[in-house]
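Deliverable D2.4 — example input (structure tokens):
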């Protein structure tokens, strides 16, 4: 899928994205992820891949020196700009997480929330992450997952997704377990520091890894 198609698909969802997400996965897991992100300290110079409307960008803003929030969708970025206009340490840029123009060893932290399970060639995004991270730089990757969910809850979530959003995007693997994410990160040259499954009904993998 080319960048123009990606931008169009995600752009069409921008206005209703936050509402749709809360409907599909529920308030509880979104709040839990935000609260966990807000506890991350001393993040330094941060780049976020797939920032969407900036919902989770806000959670780390006070603990980062600077954040460049990126997305392939201009419409998503426009929404994020409106929602985060009061944050002076956040700037916005269109970028493809698999190939950016940033120099090597540029950032202290890379953040990606609900990105890896919706893209193809996720290994390229992780390879790019390692390239632009400083030595000992941190990756925080959070992905919603069906791993560990009860079958009935999975069916309900799938129904809500189809009803509100439609057919899921094509991805390498749309349902990453903690083991899957750790394996992908390890192959990209990242050493796991933390890798947990969070959530009660709807689950998410919360991964922290350092550049080797």
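Example output (designed residues):
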């Amino acid at each position: 899928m080319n960048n123009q198609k990606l931008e169009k698909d995600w752009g069409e969802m921008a206005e209703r994205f936050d509402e749709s997400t809360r409907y599909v996965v529920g308030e509880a897991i979104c709040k839990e992820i935000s609260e966990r992100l807000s506890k991350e300290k001393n993040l330094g110079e941060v780049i976020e891949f797939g920032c969407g409307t900036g919902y989770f960008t806000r959670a780390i803003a006070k603990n980062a020196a600077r954040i460049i929030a990126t997305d392939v969708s201009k419409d998503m970025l426009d929404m994020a700009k409106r929602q985060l206009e009061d944050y002076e340490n956040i700037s916005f840029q269109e970028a493809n997480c698999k190939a950016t123009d940033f120099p090597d060893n540029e950032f202290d932290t890379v953040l990606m929330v609900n990105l890896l399970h919706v893209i193809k060639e996720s290994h390229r995004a992780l390879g790019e992450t390692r390239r632009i991270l400083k030595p000992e730089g941190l990756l925080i990757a959070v992905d919603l997952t069906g791993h560990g969910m009860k079958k009935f809850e999975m069916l309900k979530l799938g129904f809500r997704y189809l009803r509100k959003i439609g057919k899921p995007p094509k991805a390498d693997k749309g349902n990453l377990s903690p083991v899957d994410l750790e394996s992908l990160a390890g192959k990209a040259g990242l050493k796991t520091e933390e890798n947990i499954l969070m959530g009660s009904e709807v689950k998410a993998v919360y991964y922290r890894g350092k550049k080797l």
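The chain has a mean pLDDT of 89.
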